[in-house]
Queue: 2 jobs
Job 1
Amino acid sequence: MTLAQDKVAAQGYEIVTRLDFSETTFLLEIRHAALARAARAGQFVIVMSHEEGERIPLTLADFDRGRGTITLVIQAAGKTTREMQETCQVGGHLHAVVGPMGIPSHVGSSKKVVCVGGGLGVAPIYPQARAHKEAGAYVIGVVGFRSKALMFWEDKFRACCDQLIVCTDDGSTGIKGLVTEGVKQALAEHADIDEVVAIGPPIMMKACAATTKPRAIKTTVSLNPIMVDGTGMCGGCRVRVGGKVFFACVDGPDFDGHEVDFDDLTQRLRRYAPAERRALEHWRENCRMRGAQS
Amino acid sequence: MAKKKTIRTIPQDRTPMREQPAGERRHNFGEVACGYALEDAQREAERCLFCPERFCVQGCPVSIDIPDFIRKITEKDFRGAYDIITATNLLPAICGRVCPQETQCEGQCTVGDSLEPVAIGRLERFVGDLAVAEGWINIPPIEANAFRVAIVGSGPSGMACAADLAKAGCDVTVYEAFQEAGGVLKYGIPEFRLPNSVIDSEIGKLIKLGIKFECNTLVGRLFTVEQMLGEMGFQAVFIGTGAGYPSFMGIPGESLDGVLSANELLTRCNLMQARDFPRHDTPLELGRRVAVIGAGNTAMDAMRVSLRLGAEEVHCIYRRSKAEAPARAEELHHAEQEGVEFHWLTSPVELLDDGKRGVRGMRCIRMELGEPDDSGRRRPVPVKGSEFEFDCETVVYAIGTNANPILGQTSKLRLNKRGYIEVDEDLATSIMGVYAGGDIVTGAATVIEAMGAGRKAAASIKRYLGLRDSERVYRAAEPALFGIGERNYVRLHQSVDA
Ligand SMILES: Cc1cc2nc3c(=O)[nH]c(=O)nc-3n(C[C@H](O)[C@H](O)[C@H](O)COP(=O)(O)OP(=O)(O)OC[C@H]3O[C@@H](n4cnc5c(N)ncnc54)[C@H](O)[C@@H]3O)c2cc1C
Ligand code: SF4
Ligand code: FES
């Protein structure tokens, strides 16, 4: 039984736009006026796609107060996100969307900021770049893709970045190499960078932090460990930062990149890997059976 | 009426409650204690002496008129018994199951001085279950007023506060962060102890009182407490967000896979239905041997859930002795019956790495009891040179919780040194019109205390809003005020079922 009283919540949260950026990456725009109003750069939501679904954290990729919507960019990796890729269509609904969660990013004190997004992190770095720009900072965007064909939101980034450095694995556009190459270029060109903000897979954030470490430039990373409630109640999201334990959902998600134990994060993200594989197999099997029936 | 009962004339033994045999139940999530049948309840009710001192009432945190409701059972007036209980306790089917009766009502029972005390909790549950089955609900005539009150958190404190304010005529909205209402009752306490259907039925009654539930709403982040009083137009707010934020010990090995809090284990299993994985998407992986640290209700629940999820061995590690274990006596007993191994006076010092990021075991040290500490319990002190290792693959922490920080981060509410919300004797916080109660004020406590706090806050809010104190408005002793005659009740009942 779902006890949500209002019709909206009983039905779920409406999907108003879907865009596919690649075979695996897709965008959902969801109607939730209150959330769009409350959201700040750096925050995330927890989503359940259907009643039996898992609660998964997704960093906000955008929010539009005028339209009353939030935007999520999702990479189909495990069972839940692959299923969402298959089932989430315009006019459909997500069972639960709750947030905005986490402490908003600290914006306003840095005058020159590098915003780095790689892989999954490209979309969520966008609100940070925009917020820093709106706060009057000089913003250098660094975004990384596998190739030119998979690139998205170049226009959005150009609109809020004073300088945009694109990196591709194959060199089909921008510089050839990982986003750390872009960060190095930015550091080489600017002596007065106050802060680097990096969002992406742990290995990429770790590399960015290592790049800025010699110059002791403040480096903020956004951690996205496995979560259940997102309200500080379960401790599943605990991360090690500076030798201490924090719950990323309420103490973060932003932490000092030079203090984060990324190896611990990487390991803890794999905690349920065997179960996730089983879930994926089970789901594929069901899909095959449904396919055979129809 | 028959002549006066004495301790010698009443049934001497406490009426047993049928239970699922331990060997069977440790493999299923069906309810362990099956409840009293009608004859059981009547026999047990006969054991009450109706003594004038009414010590049991003093033992109950919400002062239910215990002898009066028991007398109604002896008179076969079950609806009457229900009316008496619900005059003070909103959730008899729940409290009858989860209250620590041995330290509350039953601990004070006069019969208990020479025999086993009257099984007050079981009788309360019997009445509560009957009410659920029959669809009884006590709705006083509600005279709507213009006040809007918001409740943050749908656990027992929030539910109780909401009910009283709705009965007083306020327009009440409950905001809950999770996708379902119920708080710890839903995500923490497992189905074999408190079936979800019981909670949902109680919540159904609140909805009939006109209370609105807004799930998926994280107060503090989606909007702040200050906004609720301002632009959202609420005249008062009650905060019952619970304790949350589980503690770890800070010993080596805690970030290994296979180490989790009892809250995580229980939420995955109970709320997210990981026990039906992969039909439900949320996974939960347990090793063959599970060690749970702590001996409170949360620890007992985590251990018994682990057994039901297929763990072959479950160990309880507790640094004090059995006498100090904070769990309900019945849960401890049930855990023993189900084959949990208890290691009293034992404390972990290190979790051992299996070399593949998993746990292979735990190094522990034996403790002995020294001088009493602040809590009055004897402080456990380590015995030098008594360290030993034992094997396990999963380690579950159930050693208590700290205050949830979200509302403190997002409002001007004054917190105490430990991060809990500071309140005065009326449960008023530092912000005018905002009240708080339950675990977020006291730290982890009990369902009935949280409920009591919710009701107390409701009384304060009514005073703050200038409403009559409803305490007298819907006493069961004033049937006219209950409003629902037999015929109306039947109609209501039918429309509910339809
Ligand atoms: C596993 C377990 C077993 C227990 N067993 C027993 C027992 O047998 N007997 C007993 O008497 N007691 C027991 N307890 C203790 C008892 O459950 C608690 O004392 C009681 O539930 C506290 O009630 P509460 O209303 O303060 O908060 P909770 O029940 O914790 O409810 C708080 C609710 O608020 C929500 N919330 C939190 N923050 C926000 C926010 N910012 N916005 C919106 N919603 C929010 C939470 O999601 C939650 O649903 C047990 C506790 C646990 C964890
Ligand atoms: S509510 Fe709890 S303490 Fe009060 S009578 Fe019932 S079981 Fe006893
Ligand atoms: S996700 Fe549960 S505490 Fe952070």
Job 2
Amino acid sequence: MAHGYRLVQWTPFKKRYDLALLLGVVVFLGAYLVAGLAFTPPGDRPLPIQLALRAFGAAAFALLTLILLIGPLARLSPRFTPLLYNRRHLGVTCFGLALAHAGLVGLWYHGFSDLNPLVSLLASNPRYSSIQGFPFESLGLVALLILFVMAATSHDFWNNVLGPNMWKALHMLVYWAYGLVVVHVMLGAVQGEKSAVYAAVVGVGAGLVALVHVLVGAREARRDARADIAAADGWLRVGPPDEIADGRARIVTPPTGERIAVFRDGAAIHAISNVCRHQGGPLGEGRIVDGCVTCPWHGFQYRPQDGRSPAPFTERVAVYRTRIEDGVIFVHGEPVFGDEDVPPSVTAGAAT
Amino acid sequence: MAERSAEIVWLLLGGYLAVGLLVAGLTLLFGLRRLEPGASAMPLAVRLLIAPGLTALWPLVLARLMGLRAQEDRR
Ligand code: HEM
Ligand code: FES
């Protein structure tokens, strides 16, 4: 937001979130170490440092899977939206885990060769004779570089400098990183002495990520196909007020232009652009807090009557005219950017 | 990968990051306000936090700085 920059805009919620994240990571690493020791026969038990570097890699992969699941899950059900708020801390943590993994790999598998360890990392597997063939480490390296760029540009400063579109494009690289990591793990695990169970777990994770993305895509396509129902003279049919929960919205798609979020705040019906100015979050999946439409992604707020963020913020989105006819809400598809408020439509007989 | 190619990859990467560090340092000292007007009163901790990004994206940062410079000169 356009005001003084801080390290992190801390809130009690974010502190609890980060504490849970930290605990989760510690428990994961611990469980991995215990399982690694318990399920290998004493003879070919890996050294502690090998176990540790694998644990860090596995934790980074698990966290990346979680990160990619949260977005679409939150769109399928609002129950998951709290997980979204602080997702960038997950990303930075994931990079930290991956860096620890790669650092230990460099140290252990390549640090003792005559070659420079960095050169050795790309050129050979001197201490890892069981892995031959494709240099899966290079894939990990590219993924790590992508994670680095994303972690390094996660602060809101970068959102402002790059602009929302470029920032978004940059952070879409996460899908490339994920793909590279999946291949990295599969090749590494398959070429190594890992069990088929391990490859299956990785495959299920990646499959889940693909599945929720397809589900959400299909849902959005269906919503868009409904778009122009009864789009007469620019007025779009929304539906009866009592089908919208109090403080929530229904999203409609005009034939042209951005989607529109139609909110019900008690008896008042407001319509506002569905696209958050911050990073394009779906405002219509948020709720009304303190009289303001609040974005589900990072909590930017907009007054529903004029689309402006409350002072001292200066963001602004379009609003839309509404009317109610025979107990049905209509919204006009043309955005309003005027200086005057767009008055809400008021439902007859306060709906519940 | 042959050792020779591996060396070249690391050399390119290292060179890129070295230039990036230089650009990041100069930007943090002199160019921050030009890059993002809201950044004038940025605490040191936040400056350090964005330094890695400046290093990684230095071509873009330079382009931004030059572009904005050009606009100012025209005025
Ligand atoms: C420079 C970057 C990287 C290098 C050199 C590297 C290298 C390696 C090596 C050598 C192994 C096999 C370790 C063993 O079985 O003893 C491995 C496994 C693995 N790596 Fe990486 N890696 C890199 C980046 C990453 C990244 C970015 C991720 C995930 C975000 C990742 C996730 C994993 C996972 C999940 C495993 C399997 C761990 C297990 O056995 O449970 N790696 N990596
Ligand atoms: S997208 Fe970040 S607050 Fe809306």
